[in-house]
Amino acid sequence: MKVLKTYIIPRLIQYLLVIFIGITITFIIPRLTPIDPVQSAINRLTSYGGAYMEPEAVASMQNTLKELYGLEGGVVEQYFAFWKHLFTFDFGPSLSMFPTLVTEIIANSLPWTFFLLFFSLIISWIIGNILGGLAGYFKEKKWSNVLAVVAMSIYPIPYYVMALILVILFVYIFPIFPMMGGYSVGIQPSFTWSFFLDVLRHSILPAISLILVGIGWWFLSMRSMTSNIVAEDFVTYAEFAGLPKNKLLYSYVMRNGVLPQITALALQIGGIFNGAIITEVAFSYPGVGSLLQKSITNGDFNLMMGISVLSIIAIATASLIIDLIYPLFDPRIRYR
Amino acid sequence: MFVIIKDLLKRDKKFLFGFTVISILVFLAILSAFSPYDPRSWNVVPKDKSPSFQHLLGTNSMGQDIFWNTTHALKNSFILGLTTACISTIIGTIVGLIAGYRGGILDRILMSINDSFIVLPSLPILVFLSFSLREKMTIFVMGAILSIFSWPWGGKQVRAQVLSLREREFTYTSIFSGMNMWKVVFKEHLPFVIPWVIANFINTILWALGMEITLSVLGLTSLETPTIGTTIHWAMQYQAIFRGIWWWMLTPIILSVIFFVALYMLSVSISEFLDPRTRLQRIKMGG
């Protein structure tokens, strides 16, 4: 019971606070924009129809649209209505792809993002941790230092620049990979083997860019972690006690070094929505990131809101879960 | 302070590399004051000329000299990085010092806010903010906005340091000799955390410049101000790679790569210097 009071409840309060701050910010900001979604929708309609509309017809349409878009009433009313909708996962219709529902549009893009990011993340996590662990354990070896220098020169490069370098190299100079996009133009998305291969071919370059940067980061943090653990007393003691080197490396050093990496991995999985924006824009990959960019250029409030609210909840939830189960992995940390 | 820098320059190759590169870039940024062209005006030189003695890095499709534009871009990048790092370091350091010193409920409240900001997905929110403020987006406004999301990291680190300082003898001595909280915090504790603050300062600059590139590529900054990000944006807009104007695209790419690697080397070298374990190793190796 003491655990509940001193550990679990504060974490839960923190969780709610994060969601509250995040969602309030995302609610306020789009409302400061100069774009009026109702007016732009009407402009679109009148330009399509090309016909003159009576002022009364315009006014009544404005009201209908306002109601549909959830822009009725004062800001405070809208804010409460927004929370109400949020609890039912109802973000309303998209303003730019009216009347498709925001949740539906996001659900269509999510598999692309998830497929790309999840696999790149897992691959870079595994490779980065193994290399980093070995490099930290054999810190004096030459190859360890070479790897470190390589990682240190890849990791700080801004992600967009990295993606750009890869595009220039492998699309323009050595055209190994296809031009951007999720799949070839003219192919109908279907559950066939050839479509799958096509999707895979298109995802290789964005995946490589993510994996390269990812490996750099995991490598550096794992290397510094293990090189600290190697210097700790219990490792020195085990060494003097004559423990085989392999056992020392895997069950003493790597095992302890990988624990914080698990936390970071969980946070990154939660943050999948976050990192995808640049990758997808750079490679025109049809995921949630491209969707967010499109919603920005179209001033699509509901879509923007839906995406950011989902990403806030995903990240907050991932970090909550990790905080709650972490002490099960790491015996050194107790529920305090 | 200068002794430390001299020491690091002599002993640490990473620091030497970072320091040299940054010094050269600062020099280039200062050179922008002597630029013969106004960075905002178009068609001042012939378009799309490859590098030559007259135009060291060539010219772009908007009729601007790339070398001189780059000096302006560097100046603006430094201004942005320093603005963001100054604001967020000041907020973060004060919050960290107070939270660590006072402890208790105040600490818990401050750290809850702090953690909430750390967990917030900054990119989507930054994208919104810049979207709404696009018209008023000067370098300083952008620096201020970016600091909203970067102060908590420094705050956390400073607090951790202060928590250990708090229990030391000299803290009690100064409290018992009648110093109030502000005096203890700023006169006694601050000097100890300064090195961490500096390492964090550099990391914030790195982060801010990366964000600037991201937002510019999305077209969310004031695009007529030359920065590394807007240079990339315009080169992309004019399909510089397609049309073989490689000098336009390559300049911001190479520049940002060496800039970022140099800053990162500086920050790594300072954090290694701070870590007592690596310092011990250095002494052992006779360094």
From TrEMBL, chain A:
Biological process, per Gene Ontology: transmembrane transport
Domain ABC transmembrane type-1 residue range list: 110-326
Cross-referenced InterPro entries: MetI-like (IPR000515), MetI-like_sf (IPR035906)
Swiss-Prot/TrEMBL keywords: Cell membrane, Membrane, Transmembrane, Transmembrane helix, Transport
Ranges annotated as spanning the membrane: 12-29, 114-138, 159-180, 200-220, 262-283, 303-326
Family: Belongs to the binding-protein-dependent transport system permease family.
Protein name per its UniProtKB record: Peptide/nickel transport system permease protein
Annotated source species: Petrotoga sibirica
Lineage: Bacteria, Thermotogati, Thermotogota, Thermotogae, Petrotogales
TrEMBL record, chain B:
Biological processes annotated in GO: transmembrane transport
Listed InterPro entries: MetI-like, MetI-like_sf
CDD domains documented for this protein: TM_PBP2
PROSITE patterns in the cross-refs: ABC_TM1 (PS50928)
Source taxon at top rank: Bacteria
Compartment(s) where it occurs, according to its Swiss-Prot or TrEMBL record: Cell membrane; Membrane
Transmembrane segment boundaries: 15-34, 78-101, 113-131, 137-154, 189-210, 245-274
GO cellular component: plasma membrane
Family, as annotated: Belongs to the binding-protein-dependent transport system permease family.
Protein name: Peptide/nickel transport system permease protein
Species this chain originates from: Petrotoga sibirica
